[in-house]
Amino acid sequence: AQSVTQLDSHVSVSEGTPVLLRCNYSSSYSPSLFWYVQHPNKGLQLLLKYTSAATLVKGINGFEAEFKKSETSFHLTKPSAHMSDAAEYFCVVRRNTGTASKLTFGTGTRLQVTL
Amino acid sequence: SAVISQKPSRDICQRGTSLTIQCQVDSQVTMMFWYRQQPGQSLTLIATANQGSEATYESGFVIDKFPISRPNLTFSTLTVSNMSPEDSSIYLCSAGRWGNTGELFFGEGSRLTVL
Q1: Measured distance CA(A107)–CA(A13) in Å, rounded
Q2: Interface of A with B in 23-52 (CB under 8 A)
Q3: Which residues of A touch B101 (CB under 8 A)?
Q4: Where are the beta strands (DSSP E) in chain B?
Q5: Chain B nearest CA to A31, separation (Å)
Q6: Which of A39, A81, A92, B102 is deepest in the core (most CB within 10 A)?
Q7: A53 → chain B, closest CA residue
């Protein structure tokens, strides 16, 4: 079965410093992995996705993630945090069941950005 | 991409009543799903909404409590029946197309508070 583990429930960084949100996955085969962001009282927005192409994936708003099979990790990074990055971030794995494609969400990491 | 509209966006309900949430997608999609996000928690898949047939429920969710309809490719409803305070959550509709990378789009959710 596919699953993801987000290692930090809460991360706090200063504006302008790097962001690292950690995610490990478990999958019996090459997974499809995603990062979604949820701003307060907003819907979920896709940040980026990995689907067995390039291992370094670039997303929106300057975020990127690297798929490391040897470490079963898919950590999300950004070189310089902005106040608008404060939100909840979810690491997600896709699992295929017949004709359906279901997503399993991690528990989420709340990113706080301070001045 | 797909734009997903949900209504109501929020509601306050009395114990024992039922509420139906509507989800409209602006383009034809293959897959539609309903998720629940309890306060401070991640997203949990309730069911897959199947066009013209009974929904497929995940473990822990049953049709009597969460009846779902999907009369066409772009519209679905979720009813939360006989509500109790434990049903207070955000309910999210999501949709995507089979054959792509498994990316799902999400509505902004319906925030239900049960008194």
Answers
A1: 20
A2: 32, 34, 36, 41-46, 49, 51
A3: 32, 49, 51
A4: 4-7, 10-13, 19-25, 31-37, 43-49, 56-57, 68-72, 75-80, 89-96, 105-106, 110-114
A5: 11
A6: A92
A7: B101
In A1-114, which residue ranges form alpha helices assigned H by DSSP?
Answer: none
Distances (CA, A) of A12 to A9, A35, A47, A61: 10, 18, 19, 18
Residue A63 has a pLDDT of 97
B4, B42, B109 member nearest A106 (Cβ):
B42
Convert the pLDDT of each residue in B6-26 to its tens digit. 999 999 999 999 999 999 999
Length of chain A: 115
- Quick check: helix, strand or coil at residue A1? coil
Radius of gyration of chain A (CA): 14
User: Tokens 């199947």 map to which residue?
Assistant: B50
Share of residues in chain B with pLDDT > 90 (%): 75
Chosen from A103, A107, A110 to mutate, greatest number of chain B CBs within 10 A? A103
Tens-digit pLDDT profile for residues B99-109: 656 678 898 99
**pLDDT averaged over every residue in chain B:** 91
Q: Spell out which chain B residues touch chain A, with contact meaning CB-CB distance below 8 angstroms.
A: 4, 31, 33, 41-45, 48, 56, 92, 94, 96, 98, 101-109
Residue B31: closest CA among B76, B61, B62: B76
